[in-house]
Design goal:
The chain has 274 residues and is of the alpha+beta class. The chain is built from 7 helices and 11 strands.
């Protein structure tokens, strides 16, 4: 079984911008107050934890490499393919039956509607991993090359770096790519904070942090419910401890969903667990 790893936590930052050594600011950021500054915070960093996974959609990564025509196919430069040979892994949940859209996401054909819970759980696991990787790359750091010598700053002195990519000219371009994987029914407002349009270019905050050191892995446990255009899952996130109790493992459950429309599958309700 092959595993698809393409992707990308939200580093929130209020966005206003001014050229370095330039005291002027765009109008849309002129209402930021001192209280806003005092109440704002940049997430703390932590050390890296290896992410373990339990299932994957087969055949996705090869299809992305060959057929993706949007910027998604170049965000990560190469698509990693991992062949799982663990006999305890679930068998191929798709049986090579899915076709894929221009973004490399599986299409919601009749086989999805007719799938039993076991197959849906395997599909949900793979899509959850895709969501984690993609969300991480787009909201922690930047998936594109940046020019560290061309910067703008917001009212708090945070620095944004110019993206160097012939296909990326605006925040709208970023959003078009992002919503090729995630559903725009669940808008991510952090994109407007992490990327700035300024004088005909787009700049990225490119904030860096490491993963939660106690995060272990996530597992789709069950199918909560289905509607005509949504499938809801229970995902259990496992942690090996906390700062207060580093040796006491625990888990938390949340809801994860996928949205289907026009034969497309997109990530719906989702929170990055690390």
């Amino acid at each position: 079984m092959k595993k698809f790893l393409i992707m990308l936590i939200a580093l929130t930052a209020l966005c206003g911008c001014e050229k370095k050594e330039n005291t002027s600011q765009p109008d849309e950021f002129s209402t930021i107050t001192q209280e806003d500054v005092e109440n704002s915070a940049v997430p703390e960093t932590s050390t890296t934890a290896e992410i373990q996974t339990t299932a994957s959609i087969t055949n996705v990564s090869g299809t992305v490499t060959q057929t993706a025509t949007t910027e998604i196919s170049t965000v990560f430069n190469t698509v990693s393919t991992t062949i799982q040979q663990d006999s305890d892994r679930q068998p191929d949940p798709l049986d090579n039956s899915f076709s894929y859209d221009e973004n490399g996401m599986p299409e919601a054909d009749q086989t999805l509607a007719e799938s039993d819970d076991r197959r849906l759980i395997a599909i949900g696991q793979s899509l959850f991993e895709i969501a984690c990787d993609f969300q991480w790359k787009f909201t922690v750091g930047c998936p594109y090359e940046i020019d560290t010598n061309s910067t703008v700053q917001n009212g708090f002195g945070w620095t944004y770096y110019k993206i160097i990519n012939s296909n990326i000219h605006s925040l709208a371009d970023i959003e078009n790519i992002y919503y090729g994987v995630f559903s725009d029914r669940y808008p991510n407002e952090d994109l407007k904070m992490l990327y700035l349009d300024f004088e005909g270019d787009v700049y990225a905050l490119n904030g860096q942090r490491e993963m939660n050191p106690y995060y272990s892995f996530s597992r789709i446990k069950d199918v909560q419910s289905r509607t005509d255009d949504k499938i809801f899952f229970t995902v259990e996130n496992y942690f090996e401890g906390t700062d207060m109790n580093p040796d006491e493992s625990y888990s938390e459950t949340e809801t994860f969903s996928i949205v289907t429309y026009d034969n497309k599958i997109r990530i719906g309700q989702f929170r990055l667990p690390y």
